[in-house]
């Protein structure tokens, strides 16, 4: 009997926490590490931010804020230090595969890079686009999700001299209400 009880609980570990309508409203935070490019010049850096969204079955939609940073140090190749500091706001959509606990997904977003600087040049607000691929992991028995994803963000000429592209790997933690 003692061995049967854990076996009865095991299937519930793979169930999602959702409301009766299959609808979740969530909020979360993210952190990423990667490379930001000002035209062809690579800057090691990353991003962090937050999101608020809604999830229905195998679809997710969210609004997202990111702070993007990068730094390139002066040395043998570059004569001067260069920094990237940028703020972006995005509207994202995702399609998830309907698997029990680990859900692969793809996503796309549109928004704006709206403030910051690249190499001491102020950023002008410009349209931005991003694509994401990742895995959503359900935390058993809790309304928590963890996403591991890779993302590329592109925004056109944000300063007089530079356009902005960022590639990074990100970790997201989301709480469903």
List the keywords:
177 residues, mainly beta, Porin, 8-stranded antiparallel β-barrel, 9 strands, 68% strand, elongated
**Fraction in beta strands:** over 45%
Strand line-up in the sheet with most strands: 1-2-3-4-5-7-8-9
The CATH class is: Mainly Beta
Number of strands: 9
Bin the helical content.
under 10%
The assigned CATH architecture is: Beta Barrel
Task: Specify Rg, calculated over alpha carbons.
Answer: 19 Å
Q: Give the helix/strand class.
A: mainly beta
Inertia-based shape:
elongated
For the largest beta-sheet, the strand count, sense and barrel status come to:
8 strands, antiparallel, barrel
Number of helices, counting only DSSP H or I runs of 4 residues or more: 1
Which regions are unreliable across 5 or more consecutive residues at pLDDT < 50?
7-20
Overall number of structural domains: 1
Q: Kindly identify the CATH topology.
A: Porin
Mean pLDDT: 86
- End-to-end separation in angstroms reads 36 Å
Instruction: Give the H and E element order.
Output: HEEEEEEEEE
């Amino acid at each position: 009997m003692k061995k049967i009880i854990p076996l009865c609980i095991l299937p519930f570990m793979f169930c999602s926490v959702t409301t009766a309508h299959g609808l979740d409203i969530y909020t979360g935070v993210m952190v990423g590490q990667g490379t930001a490019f000002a035209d062809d010049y690579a800057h090691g850096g990353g991003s962090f931010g937050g999101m608020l969204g809604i999830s229905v079955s195998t679809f997710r939609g969210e609004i997202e804020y990111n702070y993007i940073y990068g730094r390139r140090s002066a040395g043998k190749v570059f004569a001067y230090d260069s920094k990237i500091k940028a703020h972006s706001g995005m509207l994202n959509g995702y399609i998830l595969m309907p698997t029990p606990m680990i859900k692969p997904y793809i996503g796309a977003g549109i928004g704006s890079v709206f403030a910051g600087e690249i190499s001491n040049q102020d950023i002008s607000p410009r349209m931005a686009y991003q694509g994401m691929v990742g895995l959503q992991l359900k935390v058993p028995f809790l309304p928590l999700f963890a996403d591991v994803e890779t993302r590329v963000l592109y925004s056109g000429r944000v300063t007089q001299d530079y356009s902005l592209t960022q590639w990074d790997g990100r970790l997201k933690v989301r709480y469903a209400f």
